[in-house]
């Protein structure tokens, strides 16, 4: 079952030790687990109301913890959930939602780009399965890049232009 495998493997990765101590974050995590442990992925569409509720709880957890980790986790989880929906409905509207959630997650914490890599494999799988619609996907992924790249990478690009700081730069702990 794809939904059960997803919730067992991915959601624990998205939760951090800082956020786990927050009751709202844990409640949101439980709602996501319950809505993804479904018999069929079609039932996922019916649980979108629960998804919105869990996102609101993630936001509340972020406000209470005064950390960006819960926000990053929330946006990354949104991106993964919208990717599941996009894989089924293949709509540009859902792809735009993925682009916004990934780019905002990357803007919040650059390590969220790891989610983008896994979502890219989902995109590639969809293109391989539907080779006849290749030009449609090129158009959709171009729009995705036009939305996601400027929003997600504006700060590293600004630092590259103004201060010649590499995009992948990480401050040393020393």
Radius of gyration: 17 Å
How many strands appear in the DSSP assignment?
0
Q: What's the average pLDDT? A: 76
Percent helix, as a range, is over 70%
Spell out the helices and strands N to C: HHHHHHHHHH
Report the span from N to C terminus. 46 Å
Poorly predicted ranges: 12-19
- The fraction of residues in strands falls at under 5%
Query: Number of helix segments?
Result: 10
Rough shape? flat
Describe it.
- With 174 residues, the chain is mainly α.
- Helix content is 79%, strand content 0%.
- Helix 6 runs antiparallel to helix 7 (69-89).
- The longest helix is centred in the C-terminal third of the chain and has 30 residues, at 134-163.
- The protein starts with a helix and ends in an 11-residue tail after the last helix.
Short description:
This protein is mainly alpha-helical and 174 residues long.
Write the layout of secondary structure elements.
Layout: H1 2-9, H2 11-14, H3 17-20, H4 23-36, H5 42-46, H6 48-65, H7 69-89, H8 92-108, H9 113-129, H10 134-163
Helix pairs in contact: 4-6, 6-7, 7-8, 7-9, 8-10
Describe the structure using short key phrases.
mainly alpha, 174 residues
């Amino acid at each position: 079952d794809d939904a059960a495998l997803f919730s067992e493997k991915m959601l624990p990765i998205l939760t951090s030790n800082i956020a786990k101590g927050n009751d709202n974050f844990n409640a949101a995590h439980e709602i996501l687990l319950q809505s993804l442990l479904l018999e069929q992925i079609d039932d996922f569409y019916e649980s979108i109301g629960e998804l919105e509720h869990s996102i609101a709880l993630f936001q509340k957890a972020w406000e209470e913890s005064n950390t960006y980790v819960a926000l990053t986790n929330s946006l990354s989880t949104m991106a993964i959930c919208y990717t599941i929906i996009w894989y089924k409905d293949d709509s540009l509207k859902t792809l735009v939602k993925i682009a916004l959630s990934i780019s905002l997650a990357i803007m919040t914490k650059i390590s969220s780009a790891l989610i983008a890599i896994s979502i890219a494999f989902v995109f590639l799988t969809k293109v391989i399965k539907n080779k006849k619609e290749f030009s449609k996907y090129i158009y959709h992924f171009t729009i995705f890049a036009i939305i996601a790249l400027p929003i997600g990478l504006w700060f590293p690009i600004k630092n590259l232009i103004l201060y010649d700081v590499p995009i992948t730069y990480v401050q040393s702990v020393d």
